[in-house]
Amino acid sequence: MFKKWFAIFKKDTLMDRAYQRSFEMLDLTRNMFNKSRESLRMKDDSQIDIHIRDKDAEVNKYEREVRRDVFKHLAIGGALDLSSGLILVSIIIDIERIGDYAKNMVELALNHPGKLYGGKFEEELRKIEEDVDEQFKQTRYCFEFCDSKRGRETLDQFFWINKACDRLLLGLVRGEKIDIGSGDAVALALYIRWLKRINSHLRNITTSIVNPFDRIGFEPKKKKF
What we know:
With 225 residues, this protein is mainly alpha-helical. It has helices spanning 2-11, 13-41, 52-77, 82-111, 122-145, 148-157, 160-173, 182-210.
């Protein structure tokens, strides 16, 4: 399905520009995610070497540009290309939300004294962080090359992340002993929730490559043999 819309993106200047902007947005938000994670989880002084609010504003500016280009394209081309425009707008909304969560992480880091430690959840939390970053790379590749096969593989590979986040959050709610203070527990709950949301938005983007428009954001249907 997505390859058909990809052909439209490549032959039209406005749509191609909007399409390329979406890659820049993904790269920006991945950088924001990694810098915010570094600040929160790896530094005692909560310093961050990028202006996260400026980067967030840049993502928002790109989102508006994409919307304008898509709108102009549809105004000129008519309803024939409506689905391609809606797909792209859906994708950039997910990317913009990732930027918002990265900004939230920085705000948490600035108000949290020292590194945020996960207690007994630390090992699994690190695995979640690493795989969310890997999913950024896989999602960008699938999106850029319209690789639906790899898209399905990516969705399967990282399916475990949301369930793991839910399990850790419920452990915090139940008051499981994790050898950290109450302030750290609150910060950890917020952080895990945002990791889950970032992962979910990345999955939404990947489903746009795998699924028809009406099923974007839903798990792909299993093929019947």
